[in-house]
Write the structure tokens for this entry.
Amino acid sequence: MAVVKNPTVLRRLRYGNVERVLQVLRRQGPSSRADVATATGLSRTTLSAIVGQLLADGVVTEEPAGPPSGRGRPVHRLTLNPRSAQAVGIEVGRERITVAIANAAHEVTAFAGTHHAQHSDPHEEAGAALDLLRDLASREGIDLAGLGGVGIGTPGPGDTSDRRQTVADTVSEALDVPVLADNNTRLAALGEAIWGAARGSGDALHLTLSYGIGGGLVAGGLLFRGAQGAAGELGHISVDADGPRCWCGGHGCLEQVAAVPALLRAAGRRSWERFTDAYAVGADTERAVVDRAALAVGRALAAASSTANPRRIVLGGEVADLGPGFLRPVEDAFRRYTATRVHRDVELVQAALGERSGALGALALVFHESPLLAGYATADAAAPEEAAADHAS
Ligand SMILES: [Zn+2]
């Protein structure tokens, strides 16, 4: 479950109309107030109040369309201000905080990241994220006054966690906007599906192989969570019937075979750097350990794909960064253990967004699910394609 700080009904209603106006400007480009009134069906009084607020917040600008022709006042056009922030995505990871800002045209306009101490207090984490956001906005000349929503990703189970709730509440109060929050690996899956390696594929599986193994399932372009928010936990698919009990409650989980600590343990190494150095020069032990992990990952992906039938599978994290020597046997095992119909058109690809994936996924979460921003996008789902087709023709 995502953590949602709900806006008041009045605010939701008001922002619903605001979003209608912004959507017209997004689709039609610069437009006169009369054009916007026609397209939205809003009354003159309502539109005038909304435009007044949008101008005051710097979300739109209003300029004469050209020199006056003939008699009367020159026509003015409303234009989206690209330097105004509409949504913010934040990832508070284990060691880094990253922030991405998008404007009302849904363009990502700024990104920043900073190191932070592991296991710090959630209030401090929220404070550090807010400092990073405000510094970034001021450096890039971005106005935060028209902000409509914030998405936040943090580590931990996909369902509600106290720590995540504290970070979300602190940010929501400081910025006075609704905040949506979820597991950061799952948001990375969404980020890769919208902006990265699985872009345009609609149905995608994502696996992050790091010190733990996290995953995410994107179905029809949306994050799939499941009944208890545990969907896409690919690291806890059991791959060893006789394996030891895992912290999750299961036995023989993929994470115990293919995450960084498991590889280090199996090879008798203490540092990942030493492990990768030995692997790179072809050490037998490291090669065998990686082959065994790749087989387990391939089989887990086969099981998940037989259920979800993705078009693309994205692999990220330190273990995937081992490159083709790991990815090729993963793909071989994946194909060997799936029906032809399931694997025929599937592509296995390496994650493309790196440290940006979590913050970008948090941004996508806001645009897809925020109670203020998403209402019209959902009710009018064909809009972005229509707009793209209009521009193409
Ligand atoms: Zn487990």
